[in-house]
């Protein structure tokens, strides 16, 4: 492609509203432009990279035995009402009405649509398993779009769905998809981890996220420093044993703690360690109020609370709800003398607290000398806290460390969550009707593009891995008005095309400094500079990753380029 004929609107300055490196570079290098908050146009360079990522995805999905289709982005509300998600998905689902006042949603995901298609066509176990996928734009009305392509309201996604007659079959395809995803992200040259995750609004159990390691990641990964164990921090179990300290139990004593609501304030005021304080938080679990107790230096993991109660919705009670139920504002709530209607559940670490401190359910007041086996009615103990750095790894090898990650892929075992709700069934070997068993597998294609840029850049611009770069080689005749430079540049351009390479030639009437700056910014793997020695047939070859340069005779250039690109 001749650079004068394509559209690469580079920018010298860093956009003020771009907070992370990938967002800055994709804007500056002319890959994307924002059309609305969280909505971007993919310009020619980005489109070429997206096409390469999509090709990798297609190759690996086809190898895993999945067939490609394309479903509508506009989805009937009735399908979402069948699954129950029309009411539970939340404000992220973009809803609209047509001229006949019928309700629709813009596809945030396609479980309902694919289930409706398959239930109408698949009636026998003989046609199972079946795996289908698509690559399509998705829509989610994010409350606060940010970080460019990493958190948008419209984005490109590959979503796949598998249908089975048995859970053994689901397990087999899940493993194939897991392998396919590992291959995809490895071929994209990403430094990633597959981590145990929560299924969230998707439903189902047994799920992994594929996380690209990055300091700007919105998720925290808990991983072992001595094994391959990795999990989203929400899902990492805590495997520790706790023993109650020996010694006599003190009398329960009520003490004044004026304006002291936080754990830090109370511990400082009473000169006690946070490990001997009880943090008491009132949660609304579906329609039931539950008091969760954790140690003062720990944090409640609401996902673990949700899983313990097998609840649909778990949220921290509001200040008004807390006062209505307990008679006191948050900060002074405790398990002693709490109304019997409120169930009390405690984290295992609370077992080690003796003669502790907790809220007294009176404003500006706390209890000292608290011993829960005597002073409160705990219904059960469970793992309810977030794992911390330094805790033992759940797999028994090493200790836990934290890293930040960008989620680029997610695989789920949905089971019969959607098929039962939507009456999608098949006849088994005995002629009995059974609900279809499902799996679901998603990749953020546009997010993957951004994640690659997060990991591959330097102070001058993007440094694309060769297999994803928008072009293979960037030819830069320094002065297009100079016949020898122009002619040699065009000869190399034609030769590269004939050899099956994808070259970009900068045929613009621009200064050399502008051309070099744009080339570094765009990040094409190899740059050919055609300069003063063009009349001798000598050019300079520069590798973008290493910045190494060498002079080459025109007859050697093609073999040198192929060697660099491994083509």
Low-confidence segments, ≥5 residues, pLDDT <50?
none
Q: What is the terminal-to-terminal distance?
A: 19 Å
Whole-number count of domains: 3
> Strand portion, in percent?
25-35%
Rg calc: 29 Å
Helix content: 25-40%
Report on the biggest sheet. 9 strands, mixed
- Name the overall outline: globular
CATH architecture of the largest domain: 2-Layer Sandwich
EC number: 6.1.1.15
Protein name: Proline--tRNA ligase
Subcellular location: Cytoplasm
GO molecular function, one term: ATP binding
What are the key terms here?
catalytic activity, acting on a protein, 31 strands, 567 residues, single chain, alpha+beta, Rossmann fold, five-stranded mixed β-sheet, BirA Bifunctional Protein, domain 2, globular
């Amino acid at each position: 492609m001749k650079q004068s004929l394509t559209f690469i609107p580079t920018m010298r300055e860093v956009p003020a509203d771009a907070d992370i490196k990938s967002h800055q570079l994709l804007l500056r290098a002319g890959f994307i432009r924002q059309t609305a908050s969280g909505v971007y146009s993919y310009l020619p360079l980005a489109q070429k990279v997206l096409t390469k990522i999509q090709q990798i995805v297609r190759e690996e999905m086809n190898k895993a035995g999945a067939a490609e289709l394309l479903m509508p982005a506009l989805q009937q509300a009735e399908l979402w009402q069948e699954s129950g998600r029309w009411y539970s998905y939340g404000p992220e689902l973009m809803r609209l009405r047509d001229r006949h006042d019928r309700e629709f949603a813009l596809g945030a995901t396609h479980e309902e649509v694919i289930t409706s298609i398959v239930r109408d066509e698949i009636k026998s176990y003989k046609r199972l398993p079946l795996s289908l996928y698509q690559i399509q734009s998705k829509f989610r009305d994010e409350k606060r779009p940010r970080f460019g392509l990493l958190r948008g309201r419209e984005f490109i996604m590959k979503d796949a769905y598998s249908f089975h007659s048995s859970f053994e079959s689901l397990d087999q395809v899940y493993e194939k998809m897991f392998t396919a995803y590992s291959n995809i992200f490895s071929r994209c040259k990403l430094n990633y981890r597959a981590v145990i995750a929560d299924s969230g609004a998707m439903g189902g159990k047994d799920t992994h996220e594929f996380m690209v390691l990055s300091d700007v990641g919105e998720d925290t990964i808990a991983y072992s420093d001595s094994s391959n164990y990795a999990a989203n921090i929400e899902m990492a179990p805590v495997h520790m044993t706790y023993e109650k300290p020996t010694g006599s139990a003190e009398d329960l004593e009520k003490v004044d703690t004026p304006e002291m609501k936080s754990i830090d304030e109370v511990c400082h005021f009473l000169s006690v360690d946070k490990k001997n304080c009880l943090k008491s938080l009132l949660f609304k679990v579906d329609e039931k109020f539950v008091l969760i107790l954790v140690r003062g230096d720990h944090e409640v993991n609401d996902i673990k609370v949700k899983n313990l109660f097998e609840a649909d919705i778990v949220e921290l009670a509001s200040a008004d709800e807390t006062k209505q139920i307990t008679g006191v504002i948050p900060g002074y709530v405790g398990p002693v003398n709490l109304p019997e209607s409120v169930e009390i559940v405690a984290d295992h670490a609370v077992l080690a607290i003796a003669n502790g401190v907790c809220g007294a359910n009176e404003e500006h007041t706390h209890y000292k000398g608290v011993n829960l086996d005597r002073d409160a009615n705990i219904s059960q103990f469970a793992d309810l806290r977030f794992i911390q750095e330094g805790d033992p790894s759940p797999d028994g090898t090493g200790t836990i460390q934290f890293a930040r990650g960008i989620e680029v892929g997610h695989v789920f075992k949905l089971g019969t969550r959607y098929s039962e709700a939507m009456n999608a069934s098949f006849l088994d070997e005995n002629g009995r009707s059974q609900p279809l068993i499902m799996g679901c597998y998603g990749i953020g294609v546009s997010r993957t593009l951004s994640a690659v840029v997060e990991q591959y850049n330097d102070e001058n611009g993007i440094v694309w891995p060769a297999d994803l770069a928008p072009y293979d080689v960037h030819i830069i005749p320094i002065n297009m008005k100079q016949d020898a430079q122009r002619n040699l540049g065009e000869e190399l351009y034609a030769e590269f095309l004939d050899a099956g390479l994808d070259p970009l030639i900068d045929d613009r009437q621009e200064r050399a400094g502008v051309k070099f700056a744009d080339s570094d910014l765009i990040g094409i793997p190899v740059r050919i500079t055609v300069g003063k020695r063009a009349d001798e047939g000598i050019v300079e070859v520069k590798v973008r990753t290493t910045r190494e340069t060498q002079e080459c005779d025109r007859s050697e250039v093609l073999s040198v380029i192929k060697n660099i690109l491994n083509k």
